Input
Amino acid sequence: MIFGKRQIVIAALVAALGTAVYLNWQFTGTNSTEIAAKDESSVKELGQTTYVNTEIKPESSAQTSAEETSAKGTDKTKKANAEVSDDPANYFYSDREKRKESNDKALEALADIIESASSSESAKRDAVKSAEKLAAAIKLQSDLEAEIRAKGFKDAFVTINNENCSVCVYGKKLDDASVITVKDIVHRQAGIEAESILVSEASK
Output
């Protein structure tokens, strides 16, 4: 069937998002790698604790240990997120988090339409097209941000709305030459005309 189960739809959309996220972080340095290493280390530590500690504890003690472990994991996650957000090469971290949350909600809503037995075939087709368009836009924005960073900016945040695009850059003097460079990148990748592209510089 052209419309599979919800899990298949979401898996396909997540795969597209995964590609965008990978490209988005590819040019932000080694910070994400360090965070991943910390997360892996945390998992190993938890696994070792479970394996080595075979002593039967009273229920209250075991519960306390679980709560402490959970709290430590939460603290590590908060610390990792703080390190990422403080990284000059990821100036727009909070903006990307908000954008991701909005995109996730939109994809969930489209997946509900596709899965619902009450949805017409036309509505399902439209939902699939919208999901594909959104996934393509997410990847395109990520590709543009990566290429703009490659031109010497520490970070960039791109928003595409139909035939308009806004680009906010950080970490490099924004002069006439760099504005032309940014607009050329957007036009070449997204096909948006220069007059519909707004380029601005983020304040420090």
Q: What stands out?
A: The chain has six helices and three strands. The beta strands are 155-161, 164-170, 197-201.
